[in-house]
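Minimal example, chain plus NAP.
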Amino acid sequence: MDRKTDVTIVGSGPAGITATIYLKRALIDVVLLDKYVPGGKVNFTAEIENYPGFNKISGPDLAGKFFEQIQNFGVEVTYGDVLDIEKKADQFKVITDDGTITSKFVIFATGTDERKMNIPGEDEFKGKGVSYCAVCDGSFYKGESVAVVGGGNSALQEALYLSGFVKKVFLVHRRQGFRADELLVKKVKSTSNIELVLDSVTLAVEGKELVSGLRVKNAITGEEKLLPVKAVFPYIGQIPATKGLSKLQVLDEHGYVIVDENMETKVDNLFGAGDVVKKNLRQIVTATNDGAIAAIEITHRSL
Ligand code: NAP
């Protein structure tokens, strides 16, 4: 698949989708590229309560609505894994595992990948009890006990989701204080089948064929215990997904893409948008904001 277009949008999460909508309304041609499904991480989120227009909507339903909207503009997602991005003269070449896309502009909106616990058993039991997506795999554990690891919005939100149908959720966090919205903290603390396991670090996922426990250690007392769980859902943060950007030197020391107020990197006509960029607030609304700003700037330059 070798293609030429005006704008290559890498990533079809909320940032990439919004950029697509704005650019298509300006009659600018785009290739919207993704390696998984349209909607990005929204697909793996149980419930969203802070996106205007919906009191409450499931992540997969919102992702479906995003997809429907770009289909109305005749855009299909092109599937491919970006291996490299090169710039020659005023053209970018986005090299994927399925061919090259050439364009004057690139919007890089790949989001983030989940951080791993890096403990024994994590890789071994992936798909056999270790899952990074409660909304995809949670229902396998109806009536069972499970563990969620982490103390941010994702961990608390997914613990609440799981508590709706599992017997018990152990919420394992390495400190006492959470870094999640107060509303979520309050809900978690008042949910009878969520047990907080605080000041605790994870040591190992244990089991035979399938997970049967999560070994944790209290960081203050040193006491170890085995939580009797059939599944472990780590939600311990994200790392920026920047494969393909290494040659262009647009990343900060933590690997996030540095952009200016127009969402442009220091490389002319290379834009960043969404969770992959260096910023303070990573939300669906801030991702859509970034996509719109990048698209409007490109529109102005294309007139
Ligand atoms: P996050 O906010 O970075 O939280 C990660 C959590 O994992 C922290 O509590 C951290 O502990 C813990 N952690 C990090 N490394 C660890 C390790 N090696 N072992 C054990 N625990 C570890 O990540 P997130 O919850 O995935 O959220 C990512 C971004 O998306 C945030 O900006 C968040 O606000 C946003 N988000 C928003 C919503 C919403 O608005 N409803 C929902 C989901 C995500 P410490 O606290 O001790 O550092």
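The two ends are 28 Å apart (CA to CA). The mean pLDDT is 96.
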